[in-house]
Predict the 3D structure of the following.
Amino acid sequence: MAKLTPEACRAGRALLKWGVRDLADEAGMSQATVVAFESGKPHNSSTADKIQAAFDAHGVEITNGTGTGAKLLTDRPKPKAKKAAKKKK
């Protein structure tokens, strides 16, 4: 598995059309943590692992061939449906 870099993280989000909030929600972390990671700030190894797991769950493969990046797998799993907010009466 290729190392997740800030550039590959941004590329992965772009493939999924995710904002920072979407990735933070899927990875179970704060938006500030995602922004710090993508800015190249020092981070815990668990941060990269959680982000990688979120991408894996949605069919994004991180690559480091001739350059860092990401690709969307064609046989990717269907995303989980988000729970609808309950309306107050």
